[in-house]
Amino acid sequence: MTNKTFHTTETAWCPGCGNYDIVNTLAGVLDDMRFKPSELLLVGGIGQAAKLNQYVNANGFSGLHGRALPAAVAAKMVNESLTVIVNTGDGDSYGEGGNHFLHNIRRNVDITHFAHDNQIYGLTKGQTSPTSDSCSVDRTGACNLSKPFQPLLIALAAGATFAARTFSGNREHMAKVMKAAIRHKGYALVDILQPCVSFNKVNTFGYYKEHTYELEGDYDATDLETALLRSMEYGPKIPIGIFYQVEKPTYHQQRPAIYDGTPMIDKQLSQDTLQTFLNKFA
Amino acid sequence: MNICIGGAAGDGIETMAGILEKTLQRSGYYVYSMRDFMSRIRGGHNFAQIRFDSEPVKAHIDALDILIAYDNRTYDEHQKRLKPDGLLLCDPQLGVSDSRTLPIKLKTLAKESGSARTIGVVCIGALVKLLGLDLRTAETVLRETLPEKLLDMNLTAVQKGFDSVEQKQTLASPNVKGQLLLTGAEAMSLGALAGGLRFYSAYPMSPSTSLLNFFAAHAEEFGLTVEQAEDEIAAINMALGASYAGAKAMVGTSGGGFSLMVEGLGLAGIAELPVVIVDVQRPGPATGLPTRTEQSDLLFACFASQGEFPRMVITVRDHPDAFYQTARALQLAQKYQIPVLLLSDQYLADSAAIVAPPDIGKAVQSVSPLKQDEGGAEAYLRYAFTDSGVSPMRVPGKTDALVRSDSDEHTEEGTITESAEVRVQMVDKRARKLELLAGELLEPAYTGAEDPDVLLVGFGTTTNAVAEAVIRLNKHGVSIGALAFGDVYPLPTKELRNYWGKAKAVYSVEQNATAQLNKLIRMETNLSCTDSILKYDGRQLSVDDILHGLAAFGIGGEVPA
Lengths: 282, 561
Ligand SMILES: Cc1ncc(C[n+]2csc(CCOP(=O)(O)OP(=O)(O)O)c2C)c(N)n1
Ligand code: SF4
Ligand SMILES: [Mg+2]
Description:
The complex is a heterodimer of chains A (about 280) and B (about 550). With about 280 residues, chain A is of the alpha/beta class. Chain A has helices at about 20-30, 70-80, 90-95, 100-105, 150-155, 170-185, 205-210, 225-230, 270-280; strands at about 40-45, 60, 85-90, 110-115, 160-165, 190-195, 210-215, 240-245. Chain A has a single domain (about 20-280), classed as Rossmann fold. Helix content of chain A is about 30%, strand content about 15%. Chain A has an 8-stranded mixed sheet with strand order 2-1-3-4-6-5-8-7, sandwiched between helices. Helices cover about 40% and strands about 20% of the residues of chain B. Chain B has 19 helices and 21 strands. In chain B, the strands form 3 sheets. In chain B, strands 6-5-4-1-3-2-14-7 form an 8-stranded mixed sheet, sandwiched between helices. Strand 2 of chain A pairs parallel with strand 15 (about 405) of chain B, so a sheet runs across the interface. The structure holds thiamine diphosphate (TPP), iron/sulfur cluster and magnesium ion (MG).
């Protein structure tokens, strides 16, 4: 522990929660990638997953439920040199924050979004989330009578340049996908299957272990059609891996006249420039 | 001189009014111009009203000297306001029988010039002649305003209009030099730039959209982040993310969008993130009257959001005020790490006035920086308990220290806490900022008799009309004065108590139905107005409205201009 830069602190999560694997893996990834804590900004909304930024020694922004993305992209907009990572729940990302999810994919700001998908509302004690499974006859607990939300399919349809799924119980896979997502230039979504031991008695650690499998070694992550088809595969078999990754101009790259790498705080408008501009109204 | 130009949406009233204002400005006059537009793109009835003089004009009045009617509806709606010796300019095709008519074959002349759409410029040509102005001034403005390919036909049109009438007026010689012609929205946008704005986000909503348009048009020139958000909730949360990352941030909207922003307002409060929220008011609730004006969000702005936290609400009074107060609002938000709400309205945002060039240096220096011990890197606490209640602010990435911002109740480090003790300490720390903030408050401006028998109180954009009414009444021996609030919450009370003590009767003048300023004053001081003059039909109170309102209380009576 001593030669590591990133460490985690005591948490308020239930023992056995999938979030522990996520935070520990993330701290390892950040160490491996040799980030400085002060260059990193971890953003969350509100929920169990969203608390993650409080448990890692980096800059942290805990915003409102559902509103992590707008705050995160704006922080990145005004300071490109920050590495911005959002950790927040499925309810936060796809329910309350659904509109922001759609439109920030379109903006392609260079941030990373780890959606801790426990298919349940954890913090509010077990209500159905957008990604909860469909209700079956014998299903007990939270389930969807509405059609379940398909994060990867929707992200791809909205034009995501990086869309992946991993499972918190497969730490090696998760670390690999996290690194690729953080390195990706542009908005990167990783839907992380995360067991909630207290409220989701169906999608458990054992359930995910049994149902998930990795995308094939020769899978072509640059082919959108394949990615769309494979993202619809969700049932007895759940593929994990990077479904799609392409390079497209980021938010900043599309506006070269405004962004040259200098943070907004260092780009103050001079009084002379403004005075000259005022004279145009004479 | 008071001119009204009316027609249907799509007739180009806005463009014509813009060219006319600029021509009057360049001819050396003070101009005050307002817009009354319907929420539609074609048809209906729109008008612009332009008042100008060789003396400063700061409000609109009802009585018209000239009415330019593109259609019969304009004539029907406004002819009763045209003075008996006024002039009605319209096409003979309208078939209006009115002794004040000066018929001009507007449509024919426009077609002869090359396009029916030059009708407005034909009118300008005619006006220039009637008023004895210099045609070359109008031509210069046309050259500056219009695209190359439309120029020739418009120059022809202005000449044809000019030749179609004889000079009727010899106006007092103008004397205005080096002044600026600004709309309220422009004044506010420029003030924001002076105040150090670096980030603006908004979702389009009348009548606030002119701010978004302005910043979007100049984002590259000034290196600003300007983002059209997917909704107002995104707009405010973006602004807060940007603010946290060190950019002075502002959002603009109208009441409906502000309603969506309210949870974000509370986040700014508890996370102590500086932000300026502009509410360009229109009549509500819900969609209300989208393109009209009202001052009915006052109490909502003062009390919106669950929970308790310091905020400041400033109402902008006129064009210069829009510039200075916006610059000041950004700096106050930064200094105290609080949300500052700026209330404007459709009337001010869309009206244009001649103003002295704003003093950028003065705007920048209007708020003195807070002297604070920044502390060392090791010990950095984002929400450190301080005497002032303001904790030293650092920007993530610009310091080795880690900066943590939190919407939950938090410790000094910025991590979640449920400690009863810390909760009370944090609420008190945030509230302590109000003590210093009290010293920043600007007292309301006073106009009128030294020891007035009658006191008027108002706020925001009715200020200049109220002042003009008071001055007229003073000239007629009425002992009256008016206090015009800019800063409204926290409410500055020194001058209020001073004049209240002298007056026998106090009336609030407000552009809302429930006398919200009166309620706020009562809540903060236990003083209550005798009565109120209220207007809530979506049209701005004019000087005449105020005079009539007072006459109804037996004050003043018939007062000539
Ligand atoms: C505006 C608002 N609505 C509702 C809530 C209550 N709330 C807090 S967290 C949460 C859902 C949490 O679910 P999820 O985002 O999936 O996170 P998890 O706890 O499962 O990690 C809700 C509804 C809130 N804090 N704010
Ligand atoms: S409720 Fe579920 S998601 Fe929340 S901490 Fe407990 S196990 Fe984890
Ligand atoms: Mg969840």
